[in-house]
């Protein structure tokens, strides 16, 4: 069982930045960020997959490419989501998730473990 705890959400003006953190109680091969806006379905935001040695692969949904950066600190068992140039449409509850399944990790149902979520609100 892996427990995840997000932090770092808040209110920010459009164009601003926030960094989300997700502290995990154990290590997983893949960690991802998802978000859910009011009245919308949960959507994939980014994932980071450990490959071998110190090699990681990252992937992003198109709407955040060039603005968001996902990273992880294995010593701290923590994954981060640096969010820059935030837009009002980024407003959502952001969830951290973890899995050891290497396939289909852009899909929420692949993940076994989820955090409680942290609210990000971007004002225009």
Structural notes for this entry:
The chain has 124 residues and is mostly beta strands. Helix content is 0%, strand content 51%. The protein has no helices and eleven strands. The strands form two sheets. Strands 2, 4, 5, 6, 9, 10 and 11 form a seven-stranded mixed β-sheet that branches.
Describe how the helices and strands are arranged:
Blueprint: E1 4-7, E2 10-13, E3 18-24, E4 30-36, E5 43-50, E6 56-60, E7 68-73, E8 78-83, E9 92-99, E10 113-114, E11 118-123
Parallel strand pairs: 2-11
Antiparallel strand pairs: 1-3, 3-8, 4-5, 4-9, 5-6, 7-8, 9-10, 9-11
Largest beta-sheet characterization: 7 strands, mixed
Counting DSSP H or I runs of 4 or more residues, the number of helices is: 0
Helix content: under 10%
Regions with pLDDT < 50 over 5+ consecutive residues? none
Number of strands: 11
Proportion in β-strands: over 45%
Cα(first) to Cα(last) distance is: 40 Å
């Amino acid at each position: 069982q892996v427990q995840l705890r997000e932090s770092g959400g808040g209110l920010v003006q459009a164009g601003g930045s926030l960094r989300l953190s997700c502290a995990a109680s154990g290590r997983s091969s893949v960690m991802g960020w998802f978000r859910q806006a009011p009245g919308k379905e949960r959507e994939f935001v980014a994932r980071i997959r450990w490959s071998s040695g110190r090699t990681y692969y990252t992937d992003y949904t198109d709407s955040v490419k060039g603005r968001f950066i996902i990273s992880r600190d294995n010593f701290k068992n923590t994954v981060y989501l640096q969010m820059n140039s935030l837009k009002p449409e980024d407003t959502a509850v952001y969830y951290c998730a973890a899995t050891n399944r290497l396939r289909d990790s852009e899909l929420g149902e692949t993940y076994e473990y989820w955090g409680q979520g942290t609210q990000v609100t971007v004002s225009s």
